[in-house]
TrEMBL record:
The keyword Transmembrane helix applies. It comes from Brevibacillus panacihumi W25. It holds the Pfam family Spore_YabQ. It comes from the Bacteria. This is Spore cortex biosynthesis protein YabQ. The chain crosses the membrane at residues 6-24, 36-61, 67-84, 128-147. Keywords: Membrane, Transmembrane, Transmembrane helix.
Length: 190
């Protein structure tokens, strides 16, 4: 293997170590904010380290056809160490700022959608309901007025109708008496 390929491999492994350090910090920041149960954290930890190993191996395959030697591990360790010494605190601070900005942007987008879309729709919905309730009350008032007017106009006929009803009721009483005489009950037969 040529010196150029070896140098390229060591630089790639230094970069992999730094990327693994960034991934580790990113994972821990999000894990701290999520407050997951212990067994899910264990599975996520396992997936993180398996993913990191797969990334290192894929880069090794690209750079030097997958040859694994001691300097490769040394490069990964030094890359991660350099990241944690030089850039870890700055990256975590930057990551917190990005998360805060994302949360602010999310809240702002929700507020804009609420102000420009949801509130006008609710306003028109409530206005339509109020208009329908008003029209319903007006219709009820008109129907009540028409009913009272109809009762007032027909009141003389109502007394006549009551008198006629009483007269007809008196005639039907006699009919039922005659009907019972035609069909005597069983008690009278015995």
């Amino acid at each position: 293997m040529s010196i150029g390929v070896q140098l390229q491999t060591v630089l790639a492994m230094l970069t992999c170590g730094a990327l693994m350090g960034m991934g580790f910090d990113t994972y821990h920041v999000f894990k701290g904010k999520s407050r997951l149960p212990g067994w899910i954290v264990f599975i996520c930890d396992l997936l993180f380290w398996l993913g990191s190993m797969a990334l290192v191996f894929l880069i090794l395959v690209k750079v030097n056809d997958g040859f694994i030697r001691f300097p490769i591990f040394f490069g990964v360790i030094i890359g991660a160490w350099l990241y944690f010494v030089v850039g870890s605190k700055k990256y975590i601070h930057f990551l917190h700022r990005v998360i805060e900005f994302s949360q602010w942007l999310y809240r702002t987008i929700l507020l804009v959608i609420d102000t420009l879309l949801v509130r006008p729709i609710l306003f028109f919905y409530r206005a339509i309901l109020m208009l329908l309730a008003f029209l319903y009350s007006v219709l009820l008032w008109i129907m009540g007025f028409v009913w009272k007017l109809t009762r007032f106009v027909t009141s003389p006929f109502a007394r006549w109708g009551q008198h006629l009803g009483k007269k007809m009721l008196g005639q039907t009483k006699g009919f039922w008496k005659n009907w019972k005489n035609w069909f005597p009950s069983k008690r009278k037969r015995e």
